[in-house]
TrEMBL record:
One GO molecular-function entry: calcium-activated cation channel activity
Residues covered by region (Disordered): 484-503
Keywords (A to Z) from UniProt: Ion channel, Ion transport, Membrane, Transmembrane, Transmembrane helix, Transport
Protein name as annotated: TRPM5 protein
Record PANTHER family: TRANSIENT RECEPTOR POTENTIAL CATION CHANNEL SUBFAMILY M MEMBER 5, TRANSIENT RECEPTOR POTENTIAL CATION CHANNEL, SUBFAMILY M, MEMBER 6
Name of encoding gene: Trpm5
Domain TRPM-like: 366-574
Origin: domain of life: Eukaryota
Skewed-composition ranges (Basic residues): 484-495
Boundaries of every TRPM SLOG domain copy: 39-266
């Protein structure tokens, strides 16, 4: 009886959820646009943002982003300055591509969104790589959408033929066909206020609480940054709502409108009075008139915004074009994270982002700038990220700022490094062969039973690969000769045979072990650094020559084999 009640309760909950948050999906074919189809989901304004995010990942098959840039600004047509067009066309698209970001817009063919997605289109036309595609997600209310009757009548998994109108003056606008995806928001009742902005805020908040797929580890929450370009008076309330979610904002000074009003007050908050606000509004919005009660309201709103200085970053690309937009974005995220803290842990997420974006310059200037005392244990996770992803400059930076490789490199971590190698490299094939051979032995049968909890490759298999290359020169690699081995007795002497390694034991020679690991993967820049840090220069260089000579014979990729032959380790041995 209890089980039946549970099922009935569950069924009612599911039905209630469907009533509250139904959605339908499909594709939009933009007639005569010459553009490929865009995917869409149509949702009620009451839908939970988790449902939308799951659709994006599991139905649309979008990889989890390393960054979400939410574009906020002018939603009417305006004349864009050349420098601003270049910032969007080159800077934002480059930043989105280099960081695997999603860009959120208002979806409609008007205002700042129209200018941005034209840049997305130009980028797509100029690029031949599918990996270079920029994910632009338009989020809009059906109430603002031209030809909404076509979208109202759609069924799930349907194809919608949609004609974009070029010269519409509002209040309804066409969907902009340069988006890759659309979230179309319907309303529960006709008299319901437009809740699209609230839904978008909730979605951005939900995403900011999820983990990235960076490095396959999901080690950091997805940063969501709001980018303010121009903007009307109503944008101020949107900014306030975003700040309540602790979202950092990058304000493009010089882009006009609200951006310039905030820029005028950010450096001197004491200037925020009703009189100065009124002057700014009349200057920036000359075609509009404001009641005094409106001015008082906007004054209080601006004061609230400016009080969140640590979440606000101001940048004028017209006057200072020396920095790329992705650099400015990361600095804004770092600023929001730091908030005057001097604890190393407060900086770790931004440091992981700097590694993910491969921006060692920002890590040096914004994170390792002498304000924080780093301990070796603080840097263990990012050190592993830098090693796995072949970022020797970060490895050196971490060593220079307190990381202790002798403390870091246990045999367990070294084994994890070998388990992380690319399946496309020769070393993977060689280790896989040794792994298969292990299964044929009695000990291997036991290993097979433990396969679910054990790494794919073991250091024992690594030592056997090295033995094929170096023969007796690598005798004893990754075997414990001090304890756990069996004694072998003959008439002349007693020997202790190698036993299994204690995986928690620290490497006896971390620089040598990392040097060999890098050489086996053909990572010469990383290998050269480890060689320089080690104490066995001549022996290590000669071993590398021997390894690469043998591997170049086995390598089927001509270019890779050539790189192996070009490696000048014999010069290091001189």
């Amino acid at each position: 009886m209890e089980e039946m009640e549970t099922k009935l309760c569950s069924s009612k909950n599911e039905e209630a959820f469907e009533r509250e948050a139904p959605y339908c999906m499909g594709e939009i074919d933009f007639t005569a646009s010459g553009k490929k189809r865009g995917k869409f989901i149509k949702v009620l304004s009451t839908i939970h943002p988790e449902v939308i995010f799951e659709v994006m990942l599991n139905k649309w098959k979008l990889p989890a982003p390393n960054l979400v840039v939410s574009l906020v600004g002018e939603e009417e047509n305006f004349q864009m300055k050349p420098w601003l067009r270049d910032t969007l066309k080159k800077g934002l698209i480059k930043a989105a591509q280099s960081t695997d970001a999603w860009i959120f817009t208002s979806a409609l063919r008007v205002g700042i969104t129209r200018h941005l997605v034209q840049a997305v289109r130009d980028h797509a036309l100029a690029s031949t790589s599918s990996r270079a595609r920029v994910v632009a997600v338009g989020i809009t209310s059906l109430r603002r959408t031209q030809h909404r009757e076509i979208l109202d009548n759609t069924k799930n998994e349907s194809l919608v033929h949609y004609q974009s109108d070029e010269n519409i003056q509002g209040p309804l606008y066409s969907l902009d066909h340069n988006h890759s995806h659309f979230i179309l928001v319907d309303h529960v009742t006709l008299d319901e206020p437009d809740r699209t902005t609230k839904l978008r805020l909730n979605l951005e908040k939900h995403i900011s609480e999820q983990r990235t797929g960076y490095g396959g580890t999901g080690s950091i929450e997805i940063p969501v940054l709001c980018l303010l370009v121009n903007g009307g008076p109503g944008t101020l309330q949107r900014i306030c709502s975003g700040l309540e979610n602790s979202a950092p904002w990058l304000i493009l000074e010089g882009s006009g409108g609200t951006s310039d009003i905030l820029a005028a007050f950010m450096n001197d908050p004491q200037l925020i009075t009703p009189e100065t606000v009124e002057k700014q509004f009349k200057e920036k919005f000359p075609a509009e008139s404001f009641l005094w009660k409106d001015i008082l309201h906007w004054t209080a709103t601006i004061q609230t915004i400016i009080s969140h200085q640590h979440l606000l970053t101001l940048h004028n690309f017209e006057q200072d074009s020396s920095e790329e937009l992705d650099t400015v974005i990361l600095k804004a995220l770092v600023k929001a994270c730091k908030s005057h803290s001097q604890e190393a842990q407060e900086y770790l997420d931004e440091l992981k982002l700097a590694v993910a974006w491969n921006r060692v310059d920002i890590a040096k200037s914004e994170i390792f700038n002498g304000n924080v005392e780093w301990k070796s244990c603080d840097l263990e996770e990012v050190m592993m990220d830098a090693l796995v992803n072949d970022k020797p400059e970060f490895v050196k930076l971490f060593i220079d700022n307190g990381a202790n490789m002798a403390e870091f490199l246990t045999y367990s971590r070294l084994q994890r490094l070998y388990c992380s190698i690319s399946q496309k490299c020769l070393l993977y094939e060689l280790l896989l062969k040794k792994h298969e051979e292990s299964k044929l032995t009695l000990a291997g049968q036991q290993l097979k039973k433990q396969q679910e909890v054990c790494p794919l490759f073991t250091l024992s298999e690594v030592s056997r690969v090295l033995k094929d290359f170096l023969h007796d020169a690598c005798k004893g690699f990754y075997q414990d000769l001090r304890q756990g081995g069996k004694k072998k007795t003959d008439k002349k002497n007693t020997k202790r045979l190698p036993g299994p390694l204690d995986m928690n034991q620290k490497s006896e020679n971390p620089w040598r072990d990392l040097f060999v690991w890098a050489v086996l993967q053909n990572r010469h820049k990383m290998a050269n650094y480890f060689w320089a840090m080690g104490q066995e220069g001549v022996a290590s260089a000669l071993a590398a020559c021997k390894i690469l000579k043998e591997m170049s014979r086995l390598e089927t990729e001509t270019e890779v084999a050539h790189i192996m032959k070009e490696a000048k380790y014999e010069q290091l041995a001189v």
